[in-house]
Write a structure and sequence with these properties.
The protein has a single domain, classed as Rossmann fold. A 7-stranded parallel β-sheet has the order 3-2-1-4-5-6-7, with helices on both faces. By secondary structure, the protein is an alpha/beta fold. It is globular. Belongs to the short-chain dehydrogenases/reductases (SDR) family. InterPro entries: NAD(P)-bd_dom_sf (IPR036291), Sc_DH/Rdtase_CS (IPR020904), SDR_fam (IPR002347). This is SDR family oxidoreductase. Keywords: Oxidoreductase. Pfam families: adh_short_C2 (PF13561).
Amino acid sequence: MSEEEKVKTQQPKADYLMDDESENVNPTPQTESSDYLAAGKLKGKKTLITGGDSGIGQAAALAFAKEGADVAIVYFESDEDAQFTKNRIQEIGQKALVYKGDVGDEAFAQEVIDKLIAEWGTLDVLVNNAGEQHYQEKIGDITAEQLDRTFRTNIFGMFYLTKAAMPHLPKGASIINTSSITAYRGSSTLLDYSATKGAIVSFTRSFSQNKEVTDKKIRVNSVAPGPIWTPLIPATFPEKKLESWGKDGALERPGQPYELAPAYVYLASSDSSYVTGQTIHVNGGVVVNG
């Protein structure tokens, strides 16, 4: 079977971190493109991607593998999607590690890094991508439990993994955080989610200037996706909202996960050697002036 045929026929169910209903998503999110031309930009790199079992994380994981990186992924609950991602990375020809658990648990985050270092000895690229969101029209409907859960996944997880990874990141390593267009233009129905994504942008800018980072020439950047079609979307928004969802940008359509992957490859590779503290906007043409 040709590489193009594999991409077309082996797309997974593809869920997102907190959603296990991906088989109901139509159309299926596309995490690979047969048009992608790899150039060995990450050859020999050891990489870790949270929320890497599906959606944006899976797209980045497969692109990293095609660029020559070994890839470890962290996922929350979808065993089938995680297994697909692992198999696909190995099929591409790279090593894969898989860790299941809650990134918002500091002990688990430390365990992931400890096991990865024991296996590979180093970590060159950390992608903090795991995230969740919950649609609420009124702030009064956001429970303390929901608020804690959203921040624990989106913010605490990023802090915990970065904190655990820092002693092991070599000179010139790269940290990439997944922010969102909502950090810049807001979202009236994703208040807690938008707040976490704004915090991720601020963390990225701040940590990139931290002496611990600058002394090791580690670059810290983020990617701010716009409306990307992952199972998180139909699982989050009311059906009536999906008719016009993602069509307000210049390209007038939602994006697919694979369309974000090159941004992660760029920030992970030496192509972005003079880029740190920045956010790349991949949003279909919505100008956010940020």
